[in-house]
Amino acid sequence: MKAVVQNRYGDTGVLALREIPEPEPGEREVLVRVAAAGLDAGVWHLMTGLPLLLRLMGYGLRAPRIAVRGREAAGRVVATGPGVTRFKAGDEVFGYCESAFAEYAAVPEDRLLPRPAGLTAEQAAALPISAVTALQAVRDRGRVAAGMRVLVIGAGGGVGTYAVQLAVATGARVTGVCSTGKTEQVRSLGAETVLDYTAEDITARPERYDLIVDTGGSRPLRGLRRMLAPGGTLVIVGGETAGRLLGGTDRVLRAALLSPFTRHRLLGLMASERTEDLAYVTGLAERGELTPVLSGVHPLAEVPELIDRFRAGALCGKAIVVP
Q: Ranges for the Enoyl reductase (ER) domain (predicted)?
């Protein structure tokens, strides 16, 4: 089968489209014929092995433990391993899926859900990582409520487009921050105000917010706190600073240390891949209350270029890869 693989850490030059053996499903695993896979920030981190802290978390010290990239997918079950009870061959499924940038993937059955008939494979593949991360940032950590003033930084990205919609759905007054080319898309998601960070310093504005969701940004904590209302909450989702050891997690650590001594709640989020949360956002999508924003659909051969565009902030919403 064809798959996007790597045998060492590095930039997109380490990725190659190769023919490798088709995996066999193990205990309580199903073999899925991948129809669509999503691209998220974790793909870049696992490709580069950065921050270095990531390698100590079991992903491989000198080289990736899992050679095939991709973390979420939708497809059809073609075979089942021993002990599988939830799915059978022919079932349409989606969910968390390591090695998703391939024609086939072996996936634990408890990481998958049945794909609703009302969602395409491309839409379903865009939900597991980014929509669940947004839900945990806005609902669980941010405790969003009707009437709150919410600022979403990175509102045009994979997590940000969902965060805007989830906050709007609760009745919050949402301001989105994005680059020039994404402003109309963010406005169409329900944001009352859209700020172009390329045209102004958003931290210098007089507005104050009850909740700020910073999706993969690198702004200093001091500037973010300046935009918070008294008692407001900052949720840092990931982080993309250049530090090789800690990367963006240094802001999360500093926020945790500072939070007890301020009038603000300063929180980081390491999203949990929970199927119950995936089921929740999927229900919203089925009812038309949450719309996956797709930047495009691309073949496996374009994955390296796609990751570079993702890192440059050139994609609006979620990029989808199809074998």
A: 10-321
Cα distances (Å, whole numbers) of residue 236 to 20, 129, 152, 247: 38, 16, 10, 13
Q: Token pair of 41, please?
A: 């920030």
What is the residue whose two structure tokens read 């209350």? Answer: 289
Residues with Cβ within 8 Å of residue 23, at least 6 apart in sequence: 31, 99, 104, 105, 106
- The parent domain of residue 226 ranges over 130-269
Predicted pLDDT at 252: 76
Q: Kindly tell me if the per-residue pLDDT of 131 is higher than 90.
A: yes
Separation CA 152–CA 137 (nearest Å): 11
Query: In the prediction, which pLDDT does 243 show?
Result: 61
- The first and second tokens of residue 132, run together, are 């669940």
Q: Which pLDDT score, from 0 to 100, does residue 53 have?
A: 72
pLDDT digits (tens, 9 = 90+) for 218-274: 788 899 999 999 999 999 997 655 566 555 567 777 777 878 888 899 998 988 999
Q: Are 175 and 195 within 8 A, CB to CB?
A: yes
Please report, rounded to a whole number, the percentage of residues in the chain having pLDDT higher than 70. 95
Cα separation, 291 vs 285, in Å, equals 6
**DSSP annotation of 302:** G
Count of CB atoms within 10 A of residue 59's CB? Answer: 15
Number of domains in the chain: 2
CA atoms within 13 A on the CB side of 238: 25
Summarize the confidence of residues 9-30 as an average pLDDT. Answer: 97
Rg (CA), the chain: 19
Residue 298 CB neighbour total at 10 angstroms: 16
Q: Within this chain, do residues 73 and 168 fall inside the same structural domain, yes or no?
A: no
CA-based nearest residue to 306, from 5, 36, 38: 38
